[in-house]
Amino acid sequence: MFTAPLSFPADFDGWRIASRTALSLGVPPEEMSFTVGEEAPGLFAEPLPLPPASASQPTVPKAFPELAAKLVCHADADRFVFAYRLLWRLQTEKQLLEIASDPDVIRAREMEKAVRRDSHKMKAFVRFREIEDPELGRHYVAWFEPFHHIVELTAPFFARRFAGMVWTILTPERSVHWDGSDLSYLPGATKDMRPKDDDMEALWLTYYASIFNPARLKVKAMQAEMPKKYWANMPETALIRPLIEGAEAASRRMIETAPTLPGLRHERQMERERMARPVPAEASAERIRHADLDAARDQAKHCKACHLWEPATQTVFGRGPADAPVMFIGEQPGDQEDLAGEPFIGPAGKVFDQALAAAGIDRTRAYVTNAVKHFKFVPRGKRRIHAKPNAGEVQACRWWLDTERELIRPKLVVALGATAAAAVLGRTVTIRDTRSKLIDLDAATKLLVTVHPSYILRLPDAAAQAQESAAFTADMALVRATVPELALAA
Question: Residue 58 half-sphere exposure, CB side, CA atoms within 13 Å?
């Protein structure tokens, strides 16, 4: 039996050096043991001899060092030998960690999960209290009782998060101090060394009570995420019981004092009436009188004709030369267009550009815009998901579209999708009945209706996408044939 001494309960570096030595000597896991600190080795345990000079380094999968670093933080007394057993097996079982049904792998993943969870709880539940220190000045101290040996693992998080503070976290086994530049580790502390309440605690309790929502109270879920083990060291937990007991009465008060809202039918009717309200003649004359795209673009930045301006980042006006012979009209800007303020630069824009290039069209000679100038979306997690604009929103923005057409006077208008076609024609049409046909808008302007590029992206399989892409490119070729001056320079 061989033994290797380790400096502290989560001494990963010490374990790694000792394990490499043991592996080079061919020591099997059942003949290996580890001691921590002043712990005495077994009666018959011998120190590991030096490794042979020709010893080679063990090879392990890339994921193993990170896994082993978590395993040695676990509270299991057998953790070091167990981690060594995995290392031993990996020398002959290269794919071991990929075998989810292996008992050792199952155990390792469970231990890793427990350590990660304990580290997460430490990050969430440490509460610093301010104390005055004659030597350190303003000093923040916290007491925490982890399940596992996670102080070294988690301390760098606090160093990054509170880099400008001088702080100490005390735990029963091992403590850590940050002086503003370096971390240092100290012996464990006792409960009587816990910091006392500070002046800011009352402010924190007031804040915690004010954000408590009695209508969303889920006691079991709360205790699952914040076990009672941690409550003694968190000042806000003193409020939990009275807040829970008063939740029902608080919910009733919220309902009783809530304003009476109009019915959904009334809301929809009011929205339709507001959207259908005609633009004052003097306002229209003011806009057209500018006879300048830049002036119209500046005016559009302040448009509040419908509610879409509120959540959107900015108005996305059209782009292109003022004398463009062709105007392409899409439905509305997408997520990337909303952020950049440019039309057709996202995924659908790439499909659009590819079709133009395949048809030999120079996009810089065309004017590209949308029927609706603000991005309509539904938030879903961290993403903003496109939502189709309704008729009222299209009508509210039609003023801007008519202004663009009036100022540019294109020979050909290309409506990309049904929303764009309806905005141009003032009535609903189907793509199936109008696609690839030249329609007279007036004596000088024709209309071509085709699909929106995003339709191609939504098709479920590659074959359908390829077929529709070819049809879309054919429509772009018809655009070039109708307006030859759009062609790319030879």
Answer: 27
